[in-house]
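Structural prep section.
Before we set up the soaks we want a predicted structure of the protein with 3-isopropylmalic acid in place, mainly to decide which crystallisation condition to try first. Input record follows.
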Amino acid sequence: MKYKIAVIAGDGIGPEIVAEAIKILNVAGELSGHEFEYKHVLMGGCAIDATGVPLPEETVEICKTSDAVLLGAVGGPKWDNLPGHLRPEAGLLGIRSALGLYANLRPAKLEPALADACPLKPSVVGEGFDMLIVRELTGGIYFGLRGRRMGDGGEEAYDTEVYSVKEIERIARVAFKASQLRKKKVTSVDKANVLESSRLWREVVHRVASEFPDVELEDMLVDNAAMQIVKNPGRFDVMVTSNMFGDILSDEASMITGSIGMLPSASLGDGTLGLYEPIHGSAPDIAGRGIANPLATILSAAMLLRYSLGLGEEADAVERAVAKTLDDGLRTPDIAGGAEGVRVVGTSEMGDAVARNLKSALCAREG
Ligand code: IPM
Ligand code: MG
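Run finished without errors. Recording the tokens verbatim:
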């Protein structure tokens, strides 16, 4: 089959890490008889520089007519002082919304080889952890009414958290379905002791739960969830939560996997079109130095193969190739930790090693 992949390299380390993910996709394609056609499009700071806006119409059109979108990262200090709607991040929120990608899957799993890079004590980590954060992505405070106004005490600013029953139902269903393929346990994270939007969230999630009698549901307040992630991460299977809570908790979860440079994500809607990006940002401080960790983007490419192209076997092979590369002792500086016997490598050397391991795995399959 021939697949169209829109590529948004973006800013900062974006182009460096995306190049490595494309290397991996090419190996997967070649060895499984599929052809990937890449269309590079602009979004974020580079789009602002070239066209004056963070999300050109052409980018939206090309993404809409592709099978999947691969994204690096956007943003950087150069564009920090622009008004909100013209910042690079507005491009990211705009594309998620324009493509109807309301479900953001962020798996956080401790690779055994990275146990040394995990900041938690072995007694806390126990047998390791493997959680999936399902973050609502096109609603909540990110998209609610915001503005400035004059109040009694002078100038004020406000942002609004709004969730409809429909929005909560559809994200809850994604979480329950995902858990059916895992340990069948969903933790719904909210702040129902304070927020009305969270009280509706909780009500609706419980209603949806009755469609999935085989799945266990628990509620957890977000402050407690933040604590449990570092106290007992192994207790979680699928966590479902709002846009902002999911943003924060997924960064926290990424840190205990060893590095924010390890966490991939898939943003999905009702069809198969999805957008795949590492959860980390554009890291302008290390851009251009060839030291960024490409693994989160490579693992995002694996999710692309699995969810948008239906190439589950190839996706598994990419994930195994990453694990093998780590087992072999290769580390980018962010995951080097204090472990003995590891070899610190740069971005492209890491990508090459994963590509080699993937090639041998897929060739062995052919043989
Ligand atoms: C993420 C990022 C974005 C978000 C930013 C860059 C707008 O932090 O994908 O987690 O908050 O969604
Ligand atoms: Mg974030």
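Observations: The first helix runs from residue 14 to 32.
Flagged for discussion at group meeting.
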